[in-house]
Design a protein that fits this description.
The complex is a heterodimer.
Chain A (H helix, E strand, L loop, with lengths): L1 H24 L12 E4 L18 E2 L6 E2 L6 E2 L12 H4 L1 E4 L8 E2 L12 H13 L4 E7 L6 H21 L7 E7 L10 H7 L1 E9 L1
Parallel strand pairs in A: 7-8
Antiparallel strand pairs in A: 2-3, 5-9, 6-9, 7-9
Chain B lengths: L9 H7 L4 E3 L22 E6 L3 H13 L2 E3 L7 E7 L3 E8 L5 E8 L3 H15 L10 E8 L2 E8 L6 E2 L7 E7 L3 E6 L6 E6 L4 E6 L5 E6 L5 E6 L6 E6 L6 E2 L7 E6 L5 E6 L6 E6 L6 E3 L1 E2 L4 E6 L5 E8 L1 E8 L3 E2 L1 E5 L1 E5 L5 E8 L2 E8 L5 E4 L5 E7 L2
Parallel strand pairs in B: 2-3, 2-4, 22-26
Antiparallel strand pairs in B: 1-31, 4-5, 5-6, 7-8, 7-32, 8-9, 10-11, 11-12, 12-13, 14-15, 15-16, 16-17, 18-19, 19-20, 20-21, 23-24, 24-25, 25-27, 28-29, 29-30, 30-31
Helix pairs in contact in B: 2-3
Classes of the chains: A alpha+beta, B mainly beta.
């Protein structure tokens, strides 16, 4: 980080020179050229002619990037159209999330698999018991993968893992409409390492209890 | 509202980006790219002697021409000579056939900035040497990740002019271009992976698929009429297609296993995707109208995901995973798979020669560009901790 900053400041004279030279020359209006070809203006493709730039709002050094965090493009949120079953999500959106209740019930999977292992069955039964005793409670099942797969495939695999848990809960007597699945693929690892020790902790299904407000 | 009006200090940025493209230390050698018949799948580079330019303009020109199949060589080895100059306000270039002494094209460009002018000249040279369409002024959209957060960014294909598109502070993933002004992507902003339409010129966006379960992997057809996507609303993840706003949703697959990562044929009539219907991941193609899927043979490559159909229609690039990840290509009708490079998630440039893909480095990911013929790669400067999921604009 320190190194990046000092490199940046070392560049300042160069940058000023570049800006001065390029802005100074951009006002040249005489087209004098040894090339008898066409004189074409750049700028019809949306990347072209721009008004003169100032450097007062230049980029900043971003942490961990070795580079720059650019100005984001503003977002104008449009109306959310009614999907067929969008309303079905409302009851989850209006519930309070409890991530600790079933912390020790996290279900682990084998590599590239979504079947429920015998060692994990009791955890799901514990959740099922709670759900049957608390008829108003809902539960979200989060499906996760290790990094040994391609990203969008893992998003699909994570969904299957969450669905496998939901199916198990249904067989235990929990209505499927009280269980919602969400896949994070490999994007939300529990452990950041790159060994089987970390991967085995990342191939998991996490229960999040949702209680109505 | 102009997309670029929010991007102040463009020259400063270009200068401080410290050459986002880094030539990799050693060219990777993963065996013979040539087919048994001996023909490379890609056209041999045209040797061009480039003279008269210096500094940033010179490096932009050479880099652009390299990814369009024109190598910068000493004069003695050249078939063509590109001579010209950049005087601070305009670029000039003359392309001469070294044998006949004929000028193929003579151009001068002004406006924009030095990089845009150099890119424009490079595209003109590519077209003059039948290596078009030019790719020098295209953009790449991608995912950048930092901790538990990822956002969608866009930049010039060479990593310059970086712009952050989303600011959702959640997971936003899997961007896909629709034309040059619209992106589709998946955002977890509303607590679920939903597919969004986002018009970059106005900033306007809205979800087009927010069903229960998974909504992801949007792929817009080249004719701009349809969106292919993966939804799990009716069970396990399946392939669907809709119109651009998400209406007229049709389910295309009905397998007991998961589908993932669809892409379109250049004529917008077919979709190629990954399915584990046979027990392992293979590539399939299906009519966008529905019907029976056909498996695409990928002889020599297993566990195939992330297909990308070349814009000329001939090849499908994909990721093969057997221990490590490799970017491969196969003829669109199927056949023997050819390994191009260690890496994953390929996205073709419009010229069906250059490919953006992802390398894993020390646990993080970085975007890299590949020249299909030489298999040489150049890494694009990483944004945040990890950059992946490139989508190359048309």
């Amino acid at each position: 980080m320190k190194k990046n900053i000092s490199n940046f400041y070392r560049l300042v004279p160069v940058l000023l020179l570049i800006v001065l030279v390029s802005s100074g020359c951009s006002r040249r209006s005489v087209y004098g050229t040894a090339v008898p070809g066409r004189n074409t203006n750049v700028g019809d493709d949306g990347t072209g002619a721009r008004p003169p730039r100032t450097i007062d709002n230049g980029p900043t050094i971003g942490p961990g990037t070795g580079g720059i965090t650019p100005t984001p493009i503003p977002v104008v949120e449009g109306n959310v159209p009614n999907a067929d079953d969008a309303g079905a999500r409302d009851k989850w959106d209006n519930a309070i999330e409890d991530r600790s209740k079933f912390e020790t019930q996290t279900v682990y999977f084998d590599y590239d698999k979504f079947n429920i292992k015998p060692t994990e069955v009791e955890k799901i039964r514990t959740v099922a018991t709670h759900m049957k005793a608390n008829a108003k409670h809902l539960v979200v099942v989060e499906g996760n993968c290790d990094e040994r797969g391609t990203e969008e495939y893992n998003r699909a695999l994570g969904e299957r893992r969450a669905q496998a848990i939901r199916e198990f809960l249904a067989r235990e007597g929990v209505a499927p409409d009280r269980v919602r699945t969400i896949s994070y693929g490999e994007d939300r690892p529990a452990e950041n390492g790159h060994t089987e020790a970390a991967w085995s902790k990342n191939r998991r299904g996490v229960f999040v209890l949702m209680t109505p407000k | 509202m102009n997309l670029f009006s929010h991007f102040r200090g463009a020259r400063l940025w270009a200068a401080t980006a410290l050459l986002p493209l880094v030539l990799t230390a050693a060219d990777q050698d993963l065996g013979d790219i040539n087919r048994p018949g001996g023909a490379n799948l890609f056209a041999k580079p045209i040797p061009v002697y480039i003279t008269g330019y210096s500094g940033e303009v010179d490096s932009v020109l050479k880099n652009d021409l390299f990814f369009m199949g024109m190598d910068s060589v000493p004069e003695a080895q050249a078939n063509y000579i590109l001579s010209g100059k950049f005087d601070g306000s305009q670029i000039e270039g003359s392309l001469m056939d070294k044998v006949n002494k004929n000028y193929l094209t003579r151009q001068a460009f002004r406006g924009g900035n030095a990089r845009v002018q150099a890119h424009t000249l490079a595209d003109t040279i590519a077209v003059a040497l039948a290596r078009g369409p030019g790719i020098a002024r295209t953009k790449v959209a991608f995912k950048a990740k930092k901790g538990q957060v990822s956002e969608v960014f866009i930049s010039d294909y060479d990593g310059f002019n970086l712009q952050q598109v989303t600011q959702d502070s959640t997971l936003t993933v899997a961007p896909c271009w629709a034309g040059r002004e619209v992106l589709y992507y998946t955002s977890y902003k509303l607590g679920n992976p939903d597919i969004y339409y986002h018009k970059l010129t106005t900033g306007e966006r809205h979800p087009i698929a927010r069903y229960l379960g998974l909504n992801t992997s949007a792929a817009v057809s080249p004719d701009g009429q349809h969106v292919a996507m993966i939804l799990s609303k009716s069970g396990n993840p399946e392939l669907y297609v809709s119109d651009l706003g998400g209406g007229n949703l049709r389910r295309l697959t009905t397998t007991p296993q998961e589908e993932s990562s669809p892409c379109w044929s250049p004529d917008s009539r077919e979709i190629c995707y990954t399915s584990r219907a046979s027990g392992i991941n293979r590539l399939y193609r299906i009519s966008a109208e529905g019907g029976a899927p056909r498996q695409i043979a990928t002889i020599g490559a297993s566990n195939c995901t992330e297909p990308s159909w070349s814009p000329d229609g001939k090849l499908i690039a994909f990721t093969s995973q057997a221990g490590s990840f490799r970017v491969c290509v196969v003829e669109a009708k199927g056949g023997e798979a050819v390994v191009l490079v260690e890496g994953e998630d390929p996205s073709w440039a419009p010229n069906s020669r250059a490919i953006a893909f992802v390398k894993r480095q020390n646990g993080n990911r970085v975007l890299s560009l590949l020249d299909g013929y030489s298999k040489r790669t150049k890494d694009v400067a990483r944004v945040w901790e990890s950059t992946s999921q490139p989508s190359w604009s048309r």
